[in-house]
Queue: 2 jobs
Job 1
Amino acid sequence: MIYEVRTYDLKPRSLPEVLKRFGEAYEKRKQLSQLAAFWYTEIGPLNQIVHVWPYKDLAERGKIRAAAVAAGGWPPKIAEFILSMKSDIMVPWDNSPLLEPGDVGPYFEMRTYTVGPGDQPKVQKAWAAALPVREKLSPVIATWFSEIGGLNKFVHIWPYRTLDERARIRGQAVASGTWPPSAVADAPYSTLTQENKILLAAPFSPLK
């Protein structure tokens, strides 16, 4: 299983029209394969959309994408609104939940860390020890490493019902003394950069 995470930066005030056109085009595209999630930013880098596509492997991705273009109507006619595009292929950890359709938000916190080269095994070891305690407070819905695109990226995604809930739970996690994992790991790893964004789901997103 892989996830393709496509991130587009849009012109200001274009989001409503982009969502409309993308949603209309997706009605035909989803006959070939369905989205895992489609989000837009609420806090963080504004005017950004993030769409996540699950595939069995790269071969399936290539086959389905070619079939979508050949069928017509894809990609969505939103090029006039796009300022930049980025695609990353992410590989979930063995114990990462699958992104299943459902109502678990509406707020999704996507955190992307760049870790030191070769530190991925250390990250997984530290998180495997810390996550069971942290998830007693709230669930994580994704733990992924980048395979293609920006390298040494670690992405983790957390759903919350409200932003107040997020603040309260994060405070409780730190107060427990077991979070963040990097602070208590017996095999410390380097975190070089951190990015955080709060996302909301589009009306046609299977995961809300």
Job 2
Amino acid sequence: MEGRHVKIKALIVDDEPLARERIRTLLAKEPDIEVVGECANGDEALAAMKKQPVDLLFLDVQMPEMDGFELLSRLGKDALPAVIFVTAYDQHAVRAFEIHALDYLLKPFKQSRFKEAVQRVRGQIGRRQTDEVSQRLLQLLSERKPAAVYLNRLTVRENDRVLLVKASQIEWIESAGNYVVLHVGKQNHILRETLAALEAQLDPKLFLRVSRSALVNLDQVRELQPLFKGEYVVVLLNGQQLPMTRGIRELEEKLRFS
């Protein structure tokens, strides 16, 4: 690029190894673009970009647990890089990209189409038009994802009674197969629901999955105690200790701003 000696730092985010390899191979032919990392899911991408901001993101739209749109929404408007979306056929997504003049690659894509998308984004970065592109990204995200409504209360059946349990009073939630156990003070309530399904209905600003089998109420967290090899234990206000196997950076971030 004329007048630019610093390489464009790019991150590849796709849950398919072959798709990541394809993009990496094609980028090897672009001397002004440096691939600083590859991620197989949204959590890895969030952690990578917090550690090292990037200029360009090759982002798969359809990924399990956290899709490309959710990843961007969780980055925040001040951290949005230039984005080239990568998607299998999705006429609604493609139409949205075209309306907002955003770059996308439709799998399987040819080298010529790839170079076209890269050249377009390269020009935007070179002309310092990333703020304008970020505004288009934000508009796309606001149109695709309505404001979420989360549960304030949960109904629990016990014998012939129906109890109302406030979400804010739940200390932590434990997975038990197709059931969950709500830990509320000295009481435990069993609910027929999977942990993943319930997690999607609870406010992520209040609850965080710390392991495959546990969700914690962030307001109930007293401290994090280190174990070994980067592992931690979450200690709640009531003294309950829960091993943490995921989301340490996200938990630290949420606790800092909650």
